[in-house]
């Protein structure tokens, strides 16, 4: 990339091997700063060494409360539910939600009884692929990986898009197919190649909070609204081509949210 050498890791097996089996070697964040400047920088995302270790420990300790469904944070998230819109084939989701929880306020514990809804959320995140290149890593020492010598300090791209769409891992990698996360009895199944939060040493510490928000906000919206294209537009005509930069998100578009109550 420009004047610097970079290594690009592609596919579930390779990305996982690097991030999990060689967690230390591939575990530094690529920055444009020197090691000394790194130490003076704050935060978690773009630091390394002792500063990063300390900030990450602090972040995880504080975020743990969110992920475990602590009442205060759950209630705050519930309060903010009115803002997000999603377009999916929603009939089966609404049927499951109304059968299992009806009109009462959804709780985190309801997730295990809503396998189809959970599968739809996972599939949306898989296909949505919002951080296709993750955040850049850097090797912390010289290493030999899969027979290749990689020098200390080399920038490493872990291409999460290639994991989330890996043709060896997913039955229909490029389609919206919630059955990726369901067994034959309709029970939810975890998939190893579901890696939108990355893995290993630098994996996203906000995962539990993000997953709780997605679940509560999505279920609440599905309970209260039916989403359709605006009048005169068919579903096929809605342009949902994502805008791609460092992140990948839907282009602005209009939807109708019709209140169900
Ligand atoms: C759907 C939502 C989210 C997705 C898909 C996501 C994904 C990611 C990914 C792919 C990384 C890079 C991991 C790596 O370098 O290997 C990351 C890092 C990070 N994320 Fe998230 N994230 C999400 C939400 C959040 C939230 C809600 C928070 C905080 C509350 C958060 C905090 C962070 C931090 C601090 C890092 C840097 C960790 C480090 O360098 O040690 N993220 N995230």
TrEMBL record:
Family matches, as InterPro entries: Cyt_P450 (IPR001128), Cyt_P450_CS (IPR017972), Cyt_P450_E_grp-IV (IPR002403), Cyt_P450_sf (IPR036396), Cytochrome_P450_fam2 (IPR050182)
Organism per entry: Neogobius melanostomus (round goby)
UniProt keyword annotation of Heme present: yes
GO CC aspect terms: cytoplasm
PANTHER family: CYTOCHROME P450 508A4-RELATED (PTHR24300), CYTOCHROME P450, FAMILY 2, SUBFAMILY AC, POLYPEPTIDE 1 (PTHR24300:SF319)
Pfam families assigned: p450 (PF00067)
Family (UniProt): Belongs to the cytochrome P450 family.
Single GO MF descriptor: iron ion binding
Binding site for heme: 204
Source domain of life: Eukaryota
Protein name: Cytochrome P450
BP terms from Gene Ontology: organic acid metabolic process; xenobiotic metabolic process
Record keywords: Heme, Iron, Metal-binding, Monooxygenase, Oxidoreductase
CC cofactor: heme
């Amino acid at each position: 990339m420009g004047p610097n050498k970079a290594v690009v890791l592609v596919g579930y097996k390779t990305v996982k091997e690097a991030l999990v089996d060689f967690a230390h070697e591939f575990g530094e964040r690529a920055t444009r700063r020197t090691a000394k400047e790194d130490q003076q920088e704050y935060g978690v995302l773009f630091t390394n060494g002792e500063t990063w270790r300390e900030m990450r420990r602090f972040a995880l300790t504080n975020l743990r409360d969110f992920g475990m469904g602590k009442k205060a944070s759950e209630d705050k998230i519930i309060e903010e539910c009115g803002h997000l819109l999603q377009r999916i084939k929603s009939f089966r989701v609404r049927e499951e939600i109304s059968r299992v929880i009806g009109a009462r306020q959804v709780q985190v514990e309801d997730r295990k009884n809503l396998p189809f809804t959970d599968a739809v959320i996972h599939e949306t995140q898989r296909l949505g692929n919002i951080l296709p290149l993750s955040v850049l890593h850097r090797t912390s020492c010289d290493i030999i990986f899969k027979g290749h010598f990689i020098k200390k300090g080399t920038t490493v791209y872990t291409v999460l898009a290639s994991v989330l769409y890996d043709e060896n891992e997913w039955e229909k990698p490029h389609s919206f197919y919630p059955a990726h996360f369901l067994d034959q009895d309709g029970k939810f199944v975890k998939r190893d190649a579901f890696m939108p939060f990355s893995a290993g040493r630098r994996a996203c510490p906000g995962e539990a909070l993000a997953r709780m928000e997605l679940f509560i906000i999505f279920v609440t919206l599905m309970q209260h609204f039916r989403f359709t294209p605006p009048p005169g537009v068919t579903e096929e005509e809605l342009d949902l081509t994502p805008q791609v930069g460092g992140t990948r998100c839907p282009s602005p578009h209009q939807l109708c949210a019709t209140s169900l109550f």
